[in-house]
Amino acid sequence: MKRVALLFLMLACAPSEPVPQPPSRHITSTPPVFSPPAGFTKLRVGLVPFLSKDTISAAHSRLGEYLSKTLSVPVELIVADDYGDAIDRMQRGEFDLVELSPLVYVEASSRMQLRCLVQTIADGSATASGYIFVRDDSPRRTIEDLKGASFGFVDPMSTSGSLFARKLLKDKGFDLARDLARQEFLGNHEAVLLAVMEGRVDVGATYQGAFGSLWRSKGVDPLTFRVIAKTPRTPRDIFCVRPELPAEIAEAITGALLSLTGRERAGREILGPLSLNGFQPANDRAYDEVRSVAAELAK
Asked: What are the BP-aspect GO terms (predicted)?
């Protein structure tokens, strides 16, 4: 027993091997902070009014705060008066960064040089359908039933709210001037939905996320409406900068937007109000079908 006790005592007193430790996770340096180049004191962000101005501004406010923090300059969100006004103001150099819907982008890129950064992703896709819809209690159930109806479009430069809806009607043999009782351009998707809901027009054209947007902003039940036709999928919005903007700023904006993801809480807080999942690198060729349809209907 004495020998056993002595052995345990010797082992207890013997120097032990150091236990390997995991590498330290302590961050010894902070990520580099973007240093704005001389003369760049504010980022002016132009927005197309596809919803009401108040709704657009509120939805983009957190994105503006995020870009301001990233670039170390204030961000001014500017909602254009209408779709065409967004192009005109970009041409006049009033916007540094602009979010353009597909047809507005096609028209803008035909008039001026743009540097495009990213496209939006929503509902897990970089493309979206458009809807031709009526109020749920409407007797109209097919495209053919729309003859003699009053039709609410968004803006002549709206992709889903005008261009592709008119293309579908044309392909179905409609002469809009002859076969519709009345056509109205109501300015934004929210206005079209409200006009249909209130009975001021019989039918409207909109994008696939419009019903959810109206529910969030006005509390209108999406089941108030009924879709009677879908238009082909088109690319979503694209973010571009004016060509004179320094490349380092454009690259910083691109990196900031591409890093946003709905998989992270911080990303969801910014993307959620925009109903987006994230962004992907811009691809001009994705808008070729929009160009083709616009050229066809312009004849």
From this structure: transmembrane transport
Q: How far apart are CA 65 and CA 108, in angstroms?
A: 27
Considering only CA atoms, give the Rg of the chain.
27
Residue 233: is it exposed, middle or buried by C-beta count within 10 angstroms (0-12/13-18/19+)?
middle
Amino acid, res. 268: R
The arithmetic mean of pLDDT across residues 33-57, rounded, is 93
227: CATH: 3.40.190.10
* Domain enclosing residue 72, as ranges: 43-125+236-290
**Backbone phi, psi, residue 83, to 5°:** -60, -45
Residue 167 CB neighbours (<10 A): 18
Element (H or E) spanning 131, and its range? strand 127-135
Residues 221 and 174 both lie in one domain: yes
Specify whether 53 is located in the same domain as 109.
yes
Going 195 to 197 to 199 to 204, the CA torsion angle's sign is positive
Whole-angstrom distance, CA of residue 298 vs CA of residue 22: 67
> Which tokens is 155 given?
């803006």
Q: Tell me, yes or no, whether 225 and 242 share the same domain.
A: no
CA angle 183, 173, 290 (to 5 degrees): 70
Model confidence pLDDT, tens digit, residues 251-280: 999 999 999 999 999 999 999 999 999 999
Enter the pTM of the model: 0.86
For 205-216, how does the pLDDT look when each residue is reduced to its tens digit (9 = 90+)? 999 999 999 999
Claim to verify: residue 116 and residue 256 sit in the same structural domain = yes
Question: Which residue in the block uniquely carries the two structure tokens 């946003």?
Answer: 260
| 211 phi and psi angles, rounded to 5 deg | -65, -45
Q: Does one domain contain both 55 and 133?
A: no
pLDDT band at 8 (very low <50, low <70, confident <90, very high): very low
